[in-house]
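Lab notebook, bench 4. The sequencing result for the construct came back, and we need a structural model before the next group meeting so we can plan mutations. Quick request posted to the team channel:

Model the 3D structure of this chain.
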Amino acid sequence: MSQVEIICKNTGIRKEYPKGTTLAQIAADQNVVLSHDILGAKCNNSLRELSYEVYKPQMVEFIDINDPIGYGMYLRSMVFILFKAVRDLWHECTLKVEHTLPLGSYCEIMGHSGPLTLDMVVQLRHRMQEIIDSKIPFVRSVLPTDEAIEIFKKNRLSEKVLLFQTRKELYTTVYTLDDVANYFYGYLVPDTGYIKHFHIDRYFDNGIIAMRPDIQELTGNDSHALIKTLIKDTAQGGSKLFKTFQEQKEWLSIMGVPYVGTLNKTIMEEGAGRIIKISEALQEKKIANIADKVAQKPDCRIVLISGPSSSGKTSFCKRLSIQLQVLGYQTAEISLDDYFVDRENSPRDENGDYDFECLEAIDCAFFNQQLDQMLQAKKDTEIKLPTYDFKDGKRKFLGKKVRVTPKTILIIEGIHGLNPGLTSIDPKFTFKIFVSALTHISIDTQNPVSSTDNRLIRRIVRDNNFRANTALDTLNRWASVRRGENKNIFPYQENADVMFNSALLFELGVLKKHAEPLLREIPESSEHYGEAHRLLKFLSYFVSIDEKEIPPTSILREFLGGSSFMY
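Done. Here's the predicted structure in token form:
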């Protein structure tokens, strides 16, 4: 039998194996030991399951739950177990994964009338544990799409039927777990016994929150006191985020496009014009409503805006400025980036590198001094504003000025806008807004669209259009960007007076034709090759949409180009 060479990055061993050897056999032969169970492997930078058979030379790196890709495998597998438990207990019901929250995935049980009882949740926990203890394998099959569609029909997964009728791929992957079948956007772990940590609980009256395993590891299998506390805190403090998601869910239902398949069908039958017009009109109305709320706060002089990367903050600021001017206010837009300390005074992170994303990188004292000047203006007053020279790492005064009156509202945008340490100004003078692309449309009932993926694709397109960066450049920086968001932005999102959802229903169909060629340029030798492949698969679910009907004031123009705003 012919041999194939395998280089294992975990052990440093270079060894030949018979063609057809599985990754599981290679891991066992080389005695690969990780912090947790081996869940899969990166083969030539592409994710593979442990059942994958090797037939050509491979650079192999085994992964566990500590790797973000392994973590995704774990969560998808946990959802499939929850899906089966729902079907086992209530045969006519189906699990719907709505979206993610800080603690885990928010789910609902479709087909169940009335509130979800504590007893039902206890039954679900018990049934999930039985399935896990049975160590049932997740069986992956690649079938002609027509055959896969028939399986989805038999399993009452109508939204998957429509998805693959509109996707038009020749073959489709189907997973089976004992007597139920499903489709998942991504790979699963070998069997149910790998899911050693899980917890579910009620969230509000009709929902379930499936906890992330790191929370469960902190509490242990027999103690859920911390989890109860976290759910209570999230239900109270996190209600703005939850409400924003639920509002979008209701709107998508009214539009008749809760899933990618229904969106594709609508676009294929009638074009995208109506959806584009309604989506843009809805955002404009929401921005106008926010302007009304600012005006209803009698002493408000400062609007502080924050949000993660590629959330459309800059376009939002400009559109809010217009709506406030409609109400009779003068406005001035200010970027916190111009208040960076000089580079030699910038704080450093644990690696000794400059940390430009921490609050200490902002000259808060000078920023607050200028805010005081603006607030105290009793008549038309001119104030010199700084401009930060990123090339020289210096704050300079290059002639930029702002004229303020008692009728001027300052619109201030930056990642620290909601951080209570930013300003010492009396809260009665401020109004805080959190902006993010909170995508709610789902691929299907068990595969919600990731808001993070939505923002990443926006950024890939924007960076290429306006910053001369390749998709590889963007992906190289993305992990650092995400760490900064988790540290400096998301912990303060509930400080907002309002949340604005900048996601547009049609945008991924538009961004698709811009992002796909950029992602295809990433070579197999890159560590991001697998991520590029995943994003290409994700975009393949969407029918392409022409951008000609997108107005020049659209938030999406910030990424595509063609905006009537100056950036």
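The first strand starts at residue 3 and ends at 8.
Will bring this to the meeting.
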